[in-house]
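User: Could you go from structure to sequence for me? I need the amino acid at each position, not a summary. C-alpha cells:
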C-alpha cells in the first residue's frame, strides 16, 4: 500500500481544459484519464489539495470528481487515511466481466434487431475508419489511449443502435471499470487478439441483422476476457 500522497501529477493538457470548461467536469475528466490511461495506479493515495494545485482550481470541484469516481468504483475513501485508487481483486474482476457480458450481450441483440438499413451502411463505414492504423500516435502510451477511445466509440455506437438511452449511462460505468482493469492487468490498455476477431463477428451480425450471433459473440468474448484479466491480475507482483 502506498504510504504517501501521489505528488508527481502531470499538468492537464490544454485540449482537456478546452473540452471541459466547467471545473467540475475538468477535474473528473482529468482524474479519470489518469486512472484509465496511466498516471495513477492501484493503492496510490491522492489528496484534494494536490489535485487542486495540479489543476489550479479550488477543492470543491476536486471533491466532486473524487465523489463521482468513488461511485464509479475507481477510487475509495478511507477514514483517517484519505483517498486511494482501488486495487482490483481477481475473483471480483472475473465476476464483473460476467455481468458486463450479460448486459452488453442484450445491447448487441437489440442493436442487430433495431438498426435500419441506412444505419447498417453507416456502421460499416465507421468500423472501417476505426480499424485504420494510419493516424495512430507512435508513442506507446498515447497509442493505447487512442485505441481505448476507438473501442469506446464502438460500444457507444452499439448502444445508440440499440435505441436504449437508459442503458448507455449504465454502460459507461462498465466501460470505465473494464478499461481500468485492462490497464492494470496489462500495463496499458490492450486486448487479446481474439477480442478483435469477436468485434468483427459482432458488428457483422449487427450489419446483417442477426441478433442471436451478436448476442452470443459479445457474451463469449467478454466472459473470456474477464478470465484472462483476472489471471493477469493474479500474476501481478
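Assistant: Here is the amino acid at each position, in order:
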Amino acid at each position: 500500500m502506498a504510504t504517501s500522497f501521489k505528488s508527481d501529477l502531470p499538468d492537464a493538457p490544454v485540449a482537456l481544459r478546452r473540452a471541459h470548461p466547467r471545473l467540475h467536469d475538468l477535474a473528473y475528466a482529468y482524474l479519470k484519464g489518469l486512472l484509465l490511461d496511466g498516471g495513477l495506479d492501484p493503492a496510490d493515495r491522492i489528496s484534494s489539495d494536490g489535485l487542486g494545485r495540479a489543476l489550479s482550481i479550488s477543492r470543491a470541484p476536486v471533491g466532486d470528481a473524487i465523489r463521482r469516481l468513488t461511485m464509479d468504483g475507481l477510487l475509495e475513501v478511507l477514514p483517517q487515511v484519505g483517498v486511494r485508487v482501488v486495487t482490483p481483486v481477481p475473483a471480483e474482476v472475473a465476476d464483473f466481466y460476467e455481468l458486463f457480458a450479460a448486459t452488453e450481450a442484450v445491447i448487441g441483440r437489440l442493436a442487430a434487431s433495431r438498426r435500419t438499413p441506412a444505419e447498417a451502411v453507416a456502421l460499416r463505414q465507421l468500423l472501417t475508419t476505426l480499424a485504420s492504423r494510419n493516424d495512430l500516435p507512435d508513442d506507446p502510451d498515447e497509442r493505447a489511449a487512442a485505441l481505448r477511445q476507438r473501442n469506446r466509440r464502438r460500444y457507444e455506437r452499439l448502444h445508440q443502435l440499440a435505441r436504449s438511452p437508459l442503458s448507455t449511462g449504465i454502460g459507461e460505468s462498465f466501460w470505465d471499470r473494464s478499461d481500468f482493469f485492462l490497464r492494470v492487468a496489462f500495463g496499458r490498455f490492450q486486448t487479446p487478439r481474439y477480442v478483435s476477431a469477436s468485434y468483427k463477428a459482432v458488428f457483422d451480425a449487427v450489419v446483417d441483422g442477426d441478433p442471436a450471433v451478436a448476442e452470443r459473440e459479445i457474451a463469449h468474448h467478454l466472459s473470456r476476457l474477464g478470465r484472462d484479466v483476472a489471471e493477469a491480475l493474479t500474476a501481478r507482483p
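One structural detail worth keeping in mind: Residues 131 and 150 are 9 Å apart (CA to CA).
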